[in-house]
Amino acid sequence: MPMSGQLGAGRWGGVLLTLLIVFAPACRGAPPLVVRPSGPPETTLIRNVAVFDGLTTRTPGRDVLLEGGRVREIAPAGTLAAPAGARLIQGDGFTLIPGLIDVHGHVGNSSAPPWVSTFPDPDRNLQSYLYSGVTTVLDPADMATDAFKRRDTVAHGELVGPRIFAAGPMFTVPGGHPIGAMRLLVPWWIRWYVIPRFTREVATPDAARAAVAALAPSRPDVIKVAIDSVPLGAPTLGVEVLRAIVAESHARGIRAVAHVGTVADGLEAADAGVDAWMHGMYKERIPDELIPRFAAAKIPCVATIVVFDSYGDLYEGRRTPTELESQTVSRDVLASFVPVPKSYDFSATAPFFQLLTTTREARRDNVRRLHAAGVTILAGADAQTGVFPGPGLHRELALLVEAGLSPAEAIRAATGDAARFVTARADPDFGIVAPGKIADLVLVEGDPTVRISDVRNVRLVVKDGVLFDPAAIDRAIGVKP
Fold first, then answer.
1. CA separation (Å) from 6 to 2, 196, 224, 254?
2. pLDDT of 28 higher than 60
3. Which of 149, 260, 351, 371 has a CA positioned 20 to 30 A from the CA of residue 408?
């Protein structure tokens, strides 16, 4: 790889600065998607709204009082008096759900196709997540180099965005995933800088343990390890190295999650003791007789159906933007997916993309049977080429319903169960609508527990009790001062 490991603060730092200027994101200069009001969270009373708690129950006719950044009280409609100066919102026809959680989000990625030269814009990605009702993101490998700093900046209220759980770099074998894919898909002018920062290449158990130890002071929320072979035929991590990564992570109180592709990958990860499967054995159908073995592992699965469907669509030259994508993504980027430029060479990636087009039903069938067997399915979109931060999760929720989850179960996969996983707590402080919980909430028009498409009708986003872009909210749902 040209110039990897040879960067200095001088010459190559200047090159990078030039690249940042020349290849600035297409959306730079666009109006912000969300604006944080000044001052502390307002006391807010939402009247006569249906409440889905994030687990099992949707209850109509509730008054919900938000105070001090938390849900203070929930009571039958008409029974709560508004405190002096409280903001009032009429909730008739709306459902209040927990803020959505993307359990496989990426803050530092670009979602443009590989033939378009745009530099990732993490700040804009954070706004897009929040605009779409995503108030928490687990980022299991960030292409940007300041993942932990950004996590902390958001937590301190210095940057607008969802709360972030971050892994930092991805652990892999030398030359393994995602290095091969990045060499094919990431523009040459930035890949030399990104690859050594996005990955930790480890060839032996000792090297694996040392790499985990070196990352630990950054306080990663999880360690991400890649087992999958991408592109097809790429080298994969040995079992002993995988076990060393997981054991060292656990010894330091850090959970490990595994990017898997095949049934064998998933079983290797389970035997090594990983804490989640990132992706749902997407390359092939799990044999029926092995479903009980996967269920017995008691490991949650972040399905990410959407990312593999998206690459299949990219290869087949078709893509229709959703309304949320049209609201959050530049027209030029959306228009750049179709048609594929005649100059773009698919030959190196064609076998992998062809596989993704032929395994669409297998992915859904795997999720359907794993879910039926008791495996906890979590919602994650894996933002990257063709999968946009925020809107991508809404596509994933629809696909989970396609794969056999009820609309309420799909929402739970992005709220209550997702919160339990990212916090490693049975009773998390967010992801559930209940008195005392953090006021991370989304007000949607309609009933998404019956029609999953209604979850896209985002009319109000609340994070830590803060109502975002209140002027637009006023116009949309008739907030009364």
1. 9, 10, 25, 31
2. no
3. 260
